[in-house]
Amino acid sequence: MADNQTILVVEDEAALLTLLRYNLEKAGFRVEEAADGPEALMRVAETKPDLVLLDWMLPALSGLEVCRQLRRRPETRDLPIIMVTARAEDADSVRALDTGADDHIAKPFAVEALLARIRALLRRTGAPAAKGALTWRDIAMDREAHRVTRAGRTLQLGPTEYRLLEFFLTHPGRVFSREQLLDAVWGRDIHVELRTVDVHIRRLRKAVNADGEADVIRTVRSAGYALDVET
Question: How many domains does the chain fold into?
Fold first, then answer.
């Protein structure tokens, strides 16, 4: 799977960068490097990587700001990003996901755990697109064009939010637990914290629900979430 796939590693710690390059290349990936935020943005434009492994603490421009800027640009809005944080604290992980990262991993980490996250994210974003359109109420998803609208308004969704909405659209009205959503959207072969689901649900709500529109993501206390509207 890794053949010809390029990972941009944005890391200012030389020893860690060397370790990551060695292990990623051993796993079959092509590796590009950047040592600070501005260089990362330049390298993304130049190399068009398949995934960015982005350190939070960078000189000149933080990883969070790099992530924000990449998400604002149409050409990199769907670029898979894994944020590397310095501490395994809830606030750090939630902030990384809120900024637009698809996943996060805290230092120090096992290389095999990182490789598993990379492969899982690439599988999610690189899987062949399902055919046909999905509609529910005023939401329409064109899966061939990878375009979603609500009441004619184009929705800007990250890759994980897109897959979440696609899953909900295929099962409208049904309540899914966080564990079920993790299995369906993230996959069974990788550990992701349950709070990750809540962060992405919040991002999906923000993208789908404009001012004055009904909230179409219903929270069911102690049960999970559903594509539904309170009546």
Answer: 2
